[in-house]
Amino acid sequence: MHKMEVSASYTPDGEIVSKINAGEKDLFEILIRRHNGALYKVGRSFGLVHDDVQDLMQEAHIAAYLNLGRFESRSTYKTWLIRIMLNKCYHWNMEKVHKLRSAFSEASHTGKVDFIETSPSSDGNKEVLNRELGQVLEKCIEKLAPEYRTVFVLRELEGLNVHETAEVMSLTEANVKVRLNRAKNMLRKQLESWYPKAAVYDFNLIYCDQVVANVFQRI
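RESULT FIELD:
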């Protein structure tokens, strides 16, 4: 599949959705590429490693494509898509917890524990960030509790406003503000005004191409 160039005029998501629903399926590639970075940050904010995040990104895009007819412009496509990704991450974590519980339940009868291996927190397939500050920030962010980490990522790294963040996380705007403030207070004070947004949880173009290709094979 060739790489589709996103229009310099930045055609609004809603207009692209309408054209896709009218039969221009290939335009879905624009939406995939446009929002891959946001979905990647969301997945990493759940503490998931690269391979798992990429799989869930593809599932989120596919779910969005299959339900484009239900998309309503009362919210932006981006917030709608992020909510789908959040649900995918939540259910993935719940399945993992269920598997762990099943393993220990079996162990209580057999006396043998087969530990489920988890991938290391570092991403071996991702290009090593050459900016040390970005690496330190990722580690600091990962130490936050999930409810604070996700709000911080959506607001400060992805740029969603308070209303959008509240919408995708099913919170009040007041709760979003409280969680963001607590997240900032938990991070090193000297880093609050230094984190480079582009360096944290960056989604490399090569992975973007893979997601586009895999999604189009399944829709």
